UniProtKB/TrEMBL annotation:
Family indicated by similarity: Belongs to the DNA polymerase type-Y family.
Listed name of the protein: DNA polymerase IV
Active site: E106
Organism: Nocardioides luti
Gene Ontology biological process terms from the UniProt entry: DNA repair; DNA-templated DNA replication; error-prone translesion synthesis; SOS response
Key word Coiled coil present: no
Cofactor note: Binds 2 magnesium ions per subunit.
């Protein structure tokens, strides 16, 4: 165990919803729900104003609408979230080389690896406060909650104690006092099923858990889990902050303004993406064994499927065939918003062919595929648009042949609302230049 509170956990507050409020001035201070807006959609993030009405992440959008009908229900804009996330992760890496992102909006930072004069409590707190201020400034107003503690577990618990926009420090030696009154679900890995099993044994708080010996815990929840619980209940957590390793995979993905439903089109897109991935592998002298696809459905759920070969490949035909095979097992009838292909398990060599034959890259012509855009356009609530004379805005709502747009951006005041026929040629989707095209690190 560390003797200094040098593990920092930073968590952006209501991240997706906060980015939407930043970029849509008319929604500031109002309930905003980001997620799937269709029939089977789920809530990804609710703003604090919406949480007051009981709207929570992972709740069905239908339930959220009944609890807070006046909220703005928006589909996500991942380009904006990725951009904000990159700014924040960059700031964290300027503090310490040891930054471990958990998701777009959360990361651990190891201050023991930072260039600090000491790891006294006051020093760590000053770093944390400075970081919070810089995040706010650099992201155009997003807030972050931060926890400081002697381990990852404690830092993560702490960042959640004073949300939003808070800093919680757990001084070394006070960890167990902090945990004792908390419910066992505060411990990572204790989900509803484990919590229920423990509850039936009369264990509800961490203090209750502390009284149970290791043998009994193992009997209750199994060996691997029991061991972990035993130590975490005593705030014993030696897990290291592990910096993101170099590119472990090469992938290409595309997001679409229109829900794709045509299988042939999807297969064509995957084949083209497989071609781009394989070309990047070959360019960098890499090959990989695991091919995966990523599919985001119209209701915001994201599916990943992968399959592993017995030996590494950099062949377009192989990657494409596997990607199409993985798609075949998924139900995409409701429409698809994002498709991607990746290859991981990379090796910087290609297995020698034992039989000495040279196999030429099988030539499969890449299909000409065109994503339907101009004819039947989908205007999803929240998406960025541009009008030839009114400028930039976002889709407030659409239906019955009409699309309603509010013309405002992060930098403007709350803007005017106008309606147009949904095929108005003066209105188009707006997207920033593609930020995703990053080459993998060359092999060492
Ligand atoms: Mg968060």
């Amino acid at each position: 165990m560390r003797t200094s509170a040098s593990v920092l956990h930073l968590d952006l507050d209501a991240f997706f919803a906060s980015v939407e409020q930043r970029d849509k001035p008319s929604l500031r201070g109002k309930p905003v729900v980001v997620g799937g807006v269709g029939g089977r959609g789920v809530v990804a993030t609710a703003s604090y104003e919406a949480r007051k009405y009981g709207v929570r992440s992972a709740m069905s959008t239908r339930e959220a609408r009944s609890r807070c009908p006046h909220a703005a229900f928006l589909t996500g804009r991942f380009h904006a979230y990725r951009e904000a996330s990159a700014i924040v992760m960059g700031l964290l890496r300027s503090v310490s080389p040891l930054v471990e992102p958990l998701s777009l909006d959360e990361a651990f930072v190891d201050l023991a690896a930072a260039d600090l004069p000491d790891l006294e409590l006051a020093t760590c707190v000053a770093v944390a406060e400075d970081l919070r201020a810089r995040v706010h400034e650099a992201t155009g107003g997003l807030t972050a909650s931060v926890g400081l503690g002697t381990s990852k577990f404690i830092a993560k618990v702490a960042s959640d104690l004073d949300k939003p926009d808070g800093l919680t420090v757990v001084p070394p030696g006070t960890e167990r006092d902090l945990l004792r009154p908390m419910l066992v679900t505060v411990i990572p890995g204790v989900g509803p099923a484990t919590a229920e099993r423990l509850r039936r044994a009369g264990i509800q708080t961490v203090a209750d858990l502390e009284l149970v010996d290791l043998e009994e815990l193992v009997r209750l929840v199994g060996k691997a889990h029991g061991n972990g619980l035993f130590h975490l209940a005593r705030a014993q957590d030696d897990r290291l902050v592990v910096a993101e390793r170099e590119a472990k995979s090469v992938s290409v993905e595309g997001t679409y303004d229109t829900d794709l439903t045509d299988r042939k089109l999807m297969e064509g897109l995957l084949t083209r993406q497989a071609g781009e991935v394989a070309e990047r592998l070959r360019k960098h002298g890499l090959s990989g064994r695991t091919v995966s696809i990523k599919v985001r459905l119209h209701d915001f759920t994201t599916l990943s499927r992968s399959s592993t070969l017995s030996s590494p490949t950099d062949s377009t035909a192989t990657v494409a065939r596997m990607a199409r095979g993985l798609l075949a097992d998924l139900d995409t009838s409701g429409g698809v918003r994002l498709l991607g292909v990746g290859v991981s398990g990379l090796a910087d060599w290609i297995q020698e062919d034992l039989f000495g034959e040279t196999t030429e890259e099988e030539v499969e012509p890449l299909p000409e595929v065109e994503v339907p855009s101009s004819r039947r356009r989908t205007w999803s609530p929240g998406m960025d648009v541009e009008h030839t004379t009114m400028g930039r805005g976002w889709v407030w709502g659409a239906g019955r042949g009409v699309v309603t747009v509010r013309f405002e951006t992060a930098a403007s005041a709350s803007g005017p609302v106008r309606s147009y026929p949904d095929d108005d040629p003066e209105l188009s989707a707006w997207r920033p230049a593609d930020p995703d095209e990053t080459a993998p690190a060359p092999p060492a």
